[in-house]
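Changelog entry: the L-lactate dehydrogenase complex protein LldF record was regenerated in this release. Current contents:
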Amino acid sequence: MSGGTFLGMPPFPEAAAAAVRDTRLRGNLRHATGTIRAKRAQAVAELPDWARLRAAGAAIKDRTLRHLDHYLERLEEAVTAAGGTVHWAADAAEANRIVTELVRATGESEVVKVKSMATQEIGLNAALEAAGIRAYETDLAELIVQLGDDLPSHILVPAIHRNRGEIRDIFRSEMGSWGRPAPDGLSDEPAELAEAARLHLREKFLRARVGISGANFMVAETGTLVVVESEGNGRMCLTLPETLISVVGIEKVVPTWRDLEVFLQLLPRSSTAERMNPYTSMWTGAADAEGADGPRDFHLVLLDNGRTDALADTVGRQALRCIRCSACLNVCPVYERAGGHAYGSAYPGPIGAILTPQLRGTASGLDASLPYASSLCGACYEVCPVAIDIPQVLVHLRERVVEGGEATVRGRRTTVRPARGHAAERAAMRAARWVFEHPAALRAGQRLASRTRRLHPRRLPGPGRAWTASRELPEVPAESFRDWWRRERGDDGGGREARGEREARGERGGDR
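Regenerated structure tokens:
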């Protein structure tokens, strides 16, 4: 298996157009997201102080991001004092090189992995394979994706686009080439599928000498890393191997254990709709005694890969609050119909639409299209446990795409050219700005539109045809609001100052 990546995927509109024609995909997504959405709403409703908890999470994240350099240095000191080694990776290539060298130094050619968004982001599995190292995913959904030579399509449930029948067929045909084959007569019952995965993975857990993970949180004051999961595979990967390598985005740090408490309440209810996560694994440095649980050698790779650039954007930086709960995906009408693969990134859905263009830039057609992969309905903001205003950031990024110009991406200055088709939009926006800045021109335009309203087409010609194919242009009223106000109130809309000037000249206004 080559280890799939998202490189070279088409812009979102093209990928989404193909996805919405897949009726089985839409059925799988509708069922899964609807079920998760309903359970989450019930779990959140149990807490009367959810709004305050949400505000606390956002405040902690914002404070940490403002002083990120301080907390990262403090984290490095704590990890080092506990016997771990910290590596700094500026981009994906450096992170992959560091991890590959660390695995090679052990003499091993196999690793077991805990589900990790960061390693998906950098394409670590493909980099390891190119170096002759085989990585085994141990999360059930990630295992399904790997065996099917597929790509993840959801943050919480990477194989959400597959139904039980498809999973059974993948297990039957592919498990044997990766290790223990599926049992004879395997059905599509969830219990049987889970048991097949458990038997398949057990031999890998017992054989592995190197584990690779990410982390949901890192506590700066003690150097502790935290992984939350629901299957127990993470616990096996974090305790059995002799060497553990954790690749973690620099934004995952929290200052103290007291801060961690807030997120351990927010995350499970928002993601799996549980009051408490089934498995919460924490480790600090390396095991320092014979027979103690945990690895003898621990390495932490702190990943930037565009995060510092995102931090410099005062509007877009709130995307770095994300705790990867996936609540925004489960309420998004666009994601429910297009699926995760259309986003062309390890981060699908609304959060991916704002995070990916900041991490990768908007130079490519795919990345420039992502800020438009939304109806701006606002449902994502309403459910976000750390109050990321995703619609605000989407509009902000759309402005960046339209305007183009220079930007910093992964520490390098680059020129972002407006995406194809945005030249006309940019010209229209500039013309509108000029009109709004000149009241006389605005009044003349409004009167002209009113007097010619019977001549207006119901569908726009040329490039506007696509927009009006599913929308009707609103009817222009017989008179503008300005004219109505002047006729009814005797005021030309100039406001209190203009009215005061008229009264000083002895002019009467309308009804008071």
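The longest strand covers residues 243-249.
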